[in-house]
Amino acid sequence: MSEWWTYSLSDLILFSRAAYFRLFELYNAAIWPAQIAVFAVGVAILERSLRGGARPGRARGIAALLAAAWIWVAIAFHAARYATLNTAAPVFAWIFAIEAALLLGIGVVRGRLLFGRPETASEWCGFVLFVFALAVLPFAALLCGRGLRAAEIFGLAPDPTAVGTLGLVLMAKSRPRWPLMIVPTIWCVATGAILSVLKTPDFWIAPLAAAIAVVAAFTGRSAAHV
Amino acid sequence: MRDVWTRRSFLASLAAAGASAAFRPSIAAAYPGPRGPILTRAIPSSGELLPVIGLGSSITFNVGNDPAAESVCADVMGVFFTEGGRLVDSSPMYGSSQEVIGYGLKKLGQPKALFSADKVWVSDGGEGPGQIRTSEAHWGVPRFDLLQVHNLLGWEEHLPVLYKMKDAGRLRYVGVTTSHGRRHGDVEKILRKEPLDFVQFSYNAVDREVEERLLPLAQERKIAVICNRPFQKGDLIERVQRAPLPGWAAEIDCANWAQVLLKFVVSHPAVTCTIPATSKVAHMRENIGAAYGRLPDAGMRKKIVEAVEKI
After folding, report:
1. Whether the predicted interface score ipTM is above 0.85
2. Most buried residue among B14, B65, B73, B207 by CB atoms closer than 10 A?
3. Number of residue pairs across A and B with CB atoms under 8 Å?
4. Which residues of B touch A76 (CB under 8 A)?
């Protein structure tokens, strides 16, 4: 489309805040009680990454679960549900599928996503981000008056999945991290922009998390080079 | 609105309706409205009368697959038609809005008053007819009354197709749209050379750039004007509601700020109608109320602008 330059972001966000969060309510209702199982998987990922995740077999399992989360969000959220509101959602689905492919390629096929107990500042930062995505972000809905029915769960909703992935990648002992951080970072910025147009009070959370992750990754790399 | 309706204004509107009915008896008589006749404007290319308040569907009707929200939108449409409304506007760009309109029309028994206005929004001209058929299926209508090239996207390719559809009786009116002040120079060039029935652009008490060139040009070229964003996507109504409704609002039969802002738009002589969007029944009643009673004259229009700019 040659006229893209004439559009501002608000011209393209043609749905309301109420419709967006109602989407999560209906999505959560449709997949209940999968949230409990997926939360348990998230806890297991954390536990495995802290204890023995450096073993290639376990690390491959973590990467496979993470890839499954990204492909699930691509299909079940973006393509099947968000696309009814946002004409750009099919593009988001493809972007999420790309991250799933990267996780499969780098983490499962090549086995280059190895974990262990956090030691450096950037690894601890990753740990905090993952715990935040798993256990705190779902309650952002409550703090913003949306109710738990609209809670966004790691592994099922895009924002906590992106933030949690940034956390896990930061926790990884292996390098390079950047290929796996690009898509989650882009998503965090994009979702922040969309939520800002929708005037949600917590629009800044995902972009701030991404900024912290990028800075931590950069400082971690610098420290590794010293 | 009902509270401020006076005997004098009722008689004035009744007289206006009588005059209008003398020229366009079939349309004017069909929508007497609960508070005197609904205010209408003629489409210059045909003389057909349209109520000055239409119904937009951008954002508000894009509710995804939410049965509860769809039902509320159908209720909004029900009030719109009951109160004399006709023109409903949508676009393939508006997510699920077209399907929601189709749901509402079906629930309401396909209201005969409907004036269906949709858009073609695809850069490849070859994909236009397919998109139009999909839109018709979403609405559940055999044909649209008006099709507009949305935001001028691919207008060179789409307009010849729309003209052919009109010639073949598959369409009644052809138009182009823009919004938020985009590409006004291009709109002006198109208005000068194309035989359009309608043009749609943004106009409200704050965004008045179109008063300079586009509105007078449309009037000169006898092109009907649909004004979108009368509330600036809600920002303007949110802003003015911080202030109490001025006493002079009663002089133009307005019971709330929404009606003041809408009457400002439709009182411009070049404007055919405006298309406020809402997903709330109460707001729909307020909006359609602006299609009744007295309209502001030039002095009152100036007063509205001054009042809004002060807030």
Report:
1. no
2. B73
3. 58
4. none
| Nearest-by-Cβ selection for A3 from B93, B152, B233 | B152
d(CA A9, CA A191): 12
Domain coordinates in residue numbering, chain A: 34-221
**Choosing among B65, B103, B121, which should be mutated to test the A contact, i.e. which has the most A CBs within 10 A?**
B65
Tokens matching residue B7: 């005997």
B199's enclosing H/E stretch is: strand B198-202
Q: How far apart are CA A169 and CA A155, in angstroms?
A: 15
Least confident of A130-134, A140-144, B161-165: A140-144
**Are residues A2 and B60, on separate chains, in Cβ contact within 8 Å?**
no
Tell me, rounded to whole angstroms, the distance of Cα A96 from its chain centroid: 9
Q: Does B65 touch chain A (CB under 8 A)?
A: yes
Question: Residue ranges of the alpha helices (H) in A13-135?
Answer: 17-31, 34-50, 56-72, 89-102, 121-131
Report the chain A residue with the minimal C-alpha distance to residue B99. Answer: A84
Nearest CA in chain A to B183: A6
Q: Is A58 exposed, middle or buried (0-12, 13-18, 19+ CB in 10 A)?
A: middle
**What DSSP string runs through A24-57?**
HHHHHHHHTTHHHHHHHHHHHHHHHHHTTTTSHH
DSSP B28-42: HHH---BTBPPPEEE
- Give the strand order in the sheet containing B273-274: B87-89, B115-120, B144-149, B171-177, B198-202, B224-228, B273-274
**Series of mean pLDDT values for 10-residue runs along chain B (311 residues):** 37 39 36 70 98 97 95 98 97 95 98 98 95 98 97 96 97 94 91 97 96 97 97 92 94 95 98 97 96 96 96 87
Give the residue extent of every domain in chain B.
8-310
In the structure encoding, which two tokens stand for residue A74, read together? 């691509």
CATH superfamily of B8-310: NADP-dependent oxidoreductase domain (3.20.20.100)
In 10 A of CB B264, how many CB atoms?
29
Burial of B3 (0-12, 13-18, 19+ CB in 10 A): exposed
Q: How far apart are CA A54 and CA A56, in angstroms?
A: 6
Contact indicator for B54, B117 with CB cutoff of 8 Å: yes
Interface of A with B in 21-60 (CB under 8 A): 22-23, 26
Find out whether the peptide bond into B67 is cis, omega within 30 degrees of 0.
no
Say how many Å lie between the first and final Cα of chain A, rounded.
47
The C-alpha angle with vertex B273 and arms to B157 and B8, in degrees rounded to 5, equals 170
Extract the tokens encoding A58.
């376990």
